[in-house]
């Protein structure tokens, strides 16, 4: 298979080498061959693309970005990192310390639902709450994150999100097992547990009622 060593920068952007075109058929052939060879680990695929063909996935999806000016990653002290990248500590302190799990099929059905439900609420709050206005901040303030992203031009900002072919990501996920990998119980157990939950008349699942629900359902499982 051809290498990108001789292609250099076919689109002539940013004067840096080894930058393939978007939707490049050769890259798609390479990924297809990796899948055929049962190579599905994303880190391994990235490593092989770099070693065998001199291409990184970031260069594939965003060939217009210079890897010198905007490296794909950069090691920083936590105090210098952006808030969202050091936000896991706040998630733990504000919410996660109260989450306790043990192992059983019923627990693995109830608690992940509750945790995901509460994480969705937390995500909504983080994206919609308005931060205090600060004229000395470089990033927008006095506005919620989702509004600042949607109306970035109104705040003198630039949309730097990079488009990614979701089909490539979806195919990679399917190859390594798909949604089954994020299920904690057998697929047959889910409708059985849901039926009992509904027949007992429960509507909402909260941290306040999860243990009574567990106690009521367990003898019927």
Question: What do these coordinates show?
Answer:
The chain is mostly helical. Helices cover 43% and strands 0% of the residues. The longest helix has 24 residues. It is flat and about 60 Å long.
* Unreliable parts: 1-19
Residues in helix, %: 40-55%
Structural class: mainly alpha
β-sheet strand percentage: under 5%
Mean model confidence by pLDDT: 76
Gyration radius, to the nearest Å?
A: 23 Å
Beta-strand segment tally:
0
How would you summarize the topology of this molecule?
Elements: H1 25-36, H2 42-53, H3 57-61, H4 88-94, H5 105-128, H6 145-150, H7 166-175, H8 189-199, H9 210-217
Keywords:
flat; 221 residues; mainly alpha; disordered N terminus; 0% strand; 43% helix
Quick rundown:
The protein is an all-alpha fold.
């Amino acid at each position: 298979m051809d290498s990108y060593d001789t292609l250099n920068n076919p689109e002539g952007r940013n004067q840096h080498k080894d930058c393939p075109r978007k939707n490049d058929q050769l890259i798609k052939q390479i990924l297809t061959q990796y899948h055929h060879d049962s190579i599905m680990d994303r880190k391994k695929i990235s490593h092989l693309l770099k070693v065998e063909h001199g291409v990184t996935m970031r260069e594939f999806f965003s060939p217009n970005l210079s890897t010198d000016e905007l490296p794909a990653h950069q090691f920083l002290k936590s105090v210098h990192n952006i808030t969202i990248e050091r936000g896991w500590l706040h998630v733990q302190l504000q919410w996660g310390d109260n989450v306790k799990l043990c192992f059983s099929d019923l627990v693995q059905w109830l608690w992940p639902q509750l945790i995901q439900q509460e994480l969705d609420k937390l995500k909504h709050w983080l994206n919609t709450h308005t931060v205090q206005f600060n004229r000395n901040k470089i990033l927008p303030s006095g506005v919620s994150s989702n509004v600042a992203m949607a109306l970035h031009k109104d705040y003198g900002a630039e949309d730097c999100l990079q488009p990614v072919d979701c089909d490539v990501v979806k195919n990679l996920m399917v190859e390594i097992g798909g949604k089954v990998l994020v299920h904690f119980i057998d697929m047959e157990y889910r409708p059985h547990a849901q039926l009992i939950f509904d027949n007992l008349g429960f509507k909402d699942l909260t941290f306040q009622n999860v243990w009574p629900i567990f106690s009521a359902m367990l003898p019927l499982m």
